[in-house]
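job 3f2a | input accepted
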Amino acid sequence: MGLWETMRARTTPKRNDLDALFLVPSAAITLQTAQGFLPTGSGSVCYRSATGAAFAQTQADVLALLDGDADSPYVTVTTDDFGFTWLVVAGDPADPSGLCTDLHAVNTTLEVNGFAGGLLCSMVPFVNAAGQRFGLTYLYKQGTFYAFAPTGEQSRDNLLELSVRDLLAPELPMEPDLQRWLAIWKAPGL
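job 3f2a | predicted structure (190 res):
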């Protein structure tokens, strides 16, 4: 931060790095070998929908792009209890690279068309043989990841979340501020 920004008490917002999503497939290998977690094959992007024809056309373009992709046979759009839109892509659990490419395409298309302000997060869910689940969540505005592991209606497995953070810290930009590890109750795929 420069002197002028300091004097005006303004900071430059952190720039996201959507290419960090391409680090998830290697992190998936680490999760599988170290803790037995496998990708579920689904992933999602959460955003705040905008009104107007431009946003409707952009969302339609994203859906057409993903539906036309033979590797993404299942794409749905849902709205959660808080009014946020979730675009969910389901594919082959053995191909996390293809899933991350699809999630990157959704984020990039919304960003390029002027809707970056509405992007909230992307999530790739993982599950182990015991049925434990967590979502590896990418915070769009921070450019960082965190794990969200719900265990019930309003409870979460903090120990699992922290162990995932510690395991993946050498590979992914993990969110250091635990207050930003938002609970995403009823997230699709979890």
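job 3f2a | The chain has one domain: 20-140+162-176.
job 3f2a | closed
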